[in-house]
Amino acid sequence: MRHGTEHADVATTEADLSAAELDTALRSGPFHVALRAAIAARGLPLQRVQHHLSRYGVKVGVTSLSYWQQGARRPQRPESLRAVRALEEILHLPDESLIRLLAETEERPGQERATGRSYRSLVEASGVLEQLLNELEASLDGGLHTIGHHERVRIGARRELLARESHHIVRAHRDGVDRYVAVHHGDPGCAPERMTVRALENCRTGRVRFHHGTGVLVAELLFDIRLRTGDTFLFRYRIEDGTAGASHEYVRGFGYSGGQYALQVCFDERALPVRCHRFTQHTAAAPRTGHLDLPLSRRHRSVHLVEPRVRSGILGIRWDWE
User: Fold this and answer.
1) Could you tell me if 22 and 41 are in contact, meaning their C-beta atoms sit under 8 angstroms apart?
2) Full-prediction pTM beyond 0.90?
3) For 199-205, what is the mean pLDDT?
4) Which superkingdom, per the lineage (predicted)?
5) Which residue, of 88, 103, 118, is where some domain finishes?
6) What number of other Cβ atoms are within 10 A of residue 227's Cβ?
7) Domain region containing 178
8) Is residue 10 classed as helix, strand or coil in its secondary structure?
9) What digits encode the pLDDT tens for the residues 165-186?
């Protein structure tokens, strides 16, 4: 009887320590430590966690779950953020507890911190984007593969992001595609309700949705035909912004590899930067790498980059004012 009591005491002590560790991790993070502590506290192997997620309609691999709790990767895509919210329920955690930790930017010694939008803002925008796409009954893929994408961004006299124009060449990978959903993420402080979406060539503007808090705007660009699998299509549109303060960079995220991308940033003659450089990021949480100085054409007041075949991740141009 004494022997049994000792085992019960040990089990109780271990449970108390596990609960205390989880409580501390949820308060102070970081995300991967809290996730690991929560999974350990529930005594669930990763295969069981994956099974529970599938019951919520979320597909996440065991390898991804392992990377998340090790801190090797951070959930970023809309599907991954859905998984994090489902994990809060599966692991009996307070609402928003893991999402809050995920949104907190971690300082990394010896690595450059993203000086544009914070990781928190990108995570919040990702969640908002998913909601807006659901309202339009659309997905980021939309049944189209990008063959070529040329973007021209205009910076105004007040150093603001005045407008951006996109010229797309796409190929349908399923039958019946008749639209493209454009996504615009304005600079901090922007007012998406004051932005204008203009269809310029081979398309017309459909429904437009936006979220003021994150500056995210999505817009349908409707084709006049339904594409069949393998069909190509060209279209062009412009989003007029000019609602925020000084802009310091333009960033484009790619969920899939493939296709050529060209980005040109044009500056007003009264607002020329002192230097420009390109950069890449594997994810919004990763450090910026691939830095390369870009020459500014004084005559044409523009700078550009060309990526012959994009990779999944983030690509952008940053500029410095005097």
Assistant:
1) yes
2) no
3) 98
4) Bacteria
5) 103
6) 21
7) 141-320
8) helix
9) 999 999 999 999 999 999 999 9
